[in-house]
């Protein structure tokens, strides 16, 4: 995965980054509030030697620099800490005093700096003053030769002792900035891990890779689609309806040399919107002037009749068992050239019925009476009905809901079709999240729909209303003839 891919994962899981940053900032603020303020008292010593002690200036400089390093260790020694505690009642033990002292030197110089850090400003200054006096006394005692001559080393206080007026720690701004940066890095890492561990189908590119087929449509999610799934009425002017029309165009030109006239619409799992997609695709094709026949071949949980508001009591099952003729149960929907063959009664053996010779003969006959036949089938991973129907069609359209189906499930559905040599026309990403910029572009460019729709031409005044049984006449006469 490239850098842009990781950035997309962080953007997709932005809430993880936000929560992590807020937790880190809260932790930093809590630590800052609960930490006692600390003050620093400093004193700086200058180490020198009498001129008569060392004649070579260069060697004398090296000698003093070595001495300064030794004096740094002496400042933090047990002996000096015990002397400081014995000299002044600080309320601290020698070990506590020793832990509060730090030393530093500058390379190439003979300056030695001692720092005492304490939560009590007065005690820090007093400790430093006592430390300075006892340190000079200790050095003179150590450096004085046994014969009582003057020591070769001399210490002078050149700065301090003095204590800071403001606490040196905690530093709220620094702590909050560091906490925010750490939270941001940790949140980004967690977001990337969460994205890499997420096996659900999240984007169109992944859907194309998994299925190995072209993306024919990306249907945006709309909250009102649950109550009004069909692209009619006000929904006909929505982004979802426009996306279905794009699917219609792509579907008709997916293979101009071998166009699919019988299309099976299926999905990997139940609830991904395959029935809605089958109905809306059929409606969109009928709007373009095609003679469309929509068949509900999901004999276990049929929904086409409920969506379209037609009578589904008698339909495909009754035709296959020979109880009725197909011309008697096909119904025209709306004022479009759309015919509907509902599922009919629920049979005890759906897969055997759909794979029977009667079903094959029916599809051969129906493809001659309509320009396009759209078949709603059962989910591929639940039962074998969808594969049985897809084998008899010219191709299949695989519908996948974004963020619901896993990549392995989509791959298994595609494999189920490929394993029986079903022509996978393409895939559709349903309920997809659309960028705000794309949504704005459509809203700015869509055609305004007048309050009152256009009147129906006189030559179409006799067309049946929604859910009305098809009368003998026009292109449906062939359905009646074939059924007999």
Automatic annotation (TrEMBL):
Pfam families: ParA, Wzz. Its EC number is 2.7.10.2. It is a multi-pass membrane protein. CDD domains: BY-kinase (cd05387). The chain crosses the membrane at residues 12-33. It is an enzyme of class 2 (transferase). It is found in: Cell membrane. It comes from the Bacteria. Keywords: ATP-binding, Cell membrane, Membrane, Nucleotide-binding, Transferase, Transmembrane, Transmembrane helix. The keyword Transmembrane helix applies. GO terms for molecular function: non-membrane spanning protein tyrosine kinase activity. Residues 2-87 form the Polysaccharide chain length determinant N-terminal domain. Residues 458-484 are annotated as: Disordered. Belongs to the CpsC/CapA family. This is Polysaccharide biosynthesis tyrosine autokinase.
């Amino acid at each position: 995965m490239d850098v842009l891919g990781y950035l997309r994962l962080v953007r997709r899981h932005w809430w993880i980054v936000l929560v992590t940053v807020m937790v880190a900032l809260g932790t930093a603020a809590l630590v800052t509030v609960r930490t006692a303020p600390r003050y620093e008292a400093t004193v700086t010593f200058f180490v020198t030697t009498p001129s008569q002690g060392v004649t070579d200036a260069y060697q004398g400089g090296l000698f003093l620099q070595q001495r300064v390093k030794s004096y740094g260790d002496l400042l933090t020694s047990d002996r000096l800490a015990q002397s400081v505690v014995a000299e002044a009642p600080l309320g601290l033990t020698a070990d506590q005093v020793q832990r509060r002292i730090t030393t530093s030197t500058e390379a190439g110089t003979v300056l030695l700096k001692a720092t005492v850090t304490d939560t009590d400003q007065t005690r820090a200054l007093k400790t430093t003053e006592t430390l300075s006096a006892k340190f000079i006394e200790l050095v003179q005692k150590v450096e004085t030769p046994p014969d009582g001559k003057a020591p070769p080393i001399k210490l002078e206080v050149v700065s301090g002792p003095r204590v800071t007026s403001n606490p040196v720690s905690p530093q709220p701004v620094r702590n909050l900035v560091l906490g925010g940066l750490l939270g941001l890095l940790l949140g980004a890492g967690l977001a990337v891990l969460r994205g890499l561990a997420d096996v659900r189908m999240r984007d169109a590119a992944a859907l194309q890779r998994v299925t190995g087929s072209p993306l024919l449509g990306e249907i945006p999610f709309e909250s009102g689609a649950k109550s009004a799934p069909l692209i009619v009425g006000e929904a006909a002017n929505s982004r979802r309806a426009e996306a279905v029309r794009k699917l219609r165009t792509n579907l008709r030109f997916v293979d101009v040399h071998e166009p699919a006239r019988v299309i099976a619409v299926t999905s990997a799992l139940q609830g991904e919107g395959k029935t809605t997609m089958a109905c809306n695709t059929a409606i969109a094709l009928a709007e373009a002037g095609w003679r469309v026949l929509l068949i509900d071949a999901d004999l276990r949980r049929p929904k086409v009749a409920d969506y379209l508001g037609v009578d589904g009591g008698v339909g495909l099952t009754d035709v296959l068992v020979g109880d009725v003729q197909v011309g008697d149960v096909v119904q025209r929907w709306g004022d479009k050239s759309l015919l509907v063959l509902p599922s009919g009664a629920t049979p005890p053996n759906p897969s055997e019925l759909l794979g029977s010779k009667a079903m094959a003969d029916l599809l051969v006959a129906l493809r001659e009476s309509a320009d396009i036949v759209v078949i709603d089938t059962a989910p591929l991973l639940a039962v074998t009905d969808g594969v049985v129907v897809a084998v008899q069609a010219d191709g299949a359209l695989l519908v996948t809901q974004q963020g619901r189906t896993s990549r392995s499930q989509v791959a298994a559905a595609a494999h189920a079709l490929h394993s029986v040599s079903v022509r996978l026309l393409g895939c559709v990403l349903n309920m997809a999240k659309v960028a705000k910029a794309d949504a704005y572009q459509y809203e700015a460019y869509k055609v305004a729909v007048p309050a009152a729709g256009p009147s129906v031409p006189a030559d179409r005044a006799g067309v049946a209303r929604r859910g009305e049984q098809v009368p003998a006449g026009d292109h449906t006469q062939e359905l009646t003839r074939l059924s007999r």
